[in-house]
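Give me the fold.
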Amino acid sequence: MNHFAAEADIRGRADLDVVLRRFYTAAFADSRIGPFFTEIAGTDLEAHLPRITDFWERALFRSADYRRNAFAPHAALNSARAMTAEDFGRWVQLWRAAIDGLHQGPNADRAKAQGERIALTLHERLAGQDASAASGDGLGFVPLAALQLRSVAA
């Protein structure tokens, strides 16, 4: 059980802005995935935040106009330095932690599940269609990451 008092569910753009700032603060500082943002992409959070908030607002509420190609920047990063299943697993871990620390409810659960689906899809597309079976255990990337991440959170 969690040892914090999470707020109400994610209600809209303002809540997403806070979650995303919390996530990116952790991601930029993370030794595993931080370099993708800081060194390789040179991400300017203030420039990036409105676009990524549009993405998540559309994904959760269908209320924002997001027409960008979300795959292209990840493909460019992957060309500069290959992103591994462990990198995506860390992304999922930080994403879930950013949400869990602030919100609980159906939208928060949907955001966490969507994050895992996005990580799996990006990983599969970047590594090839058989990436989820590459471990040979039949579990694929997301279940393995979920098990590892949930054991840390418990």
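The longest helix spans residues 106-127.
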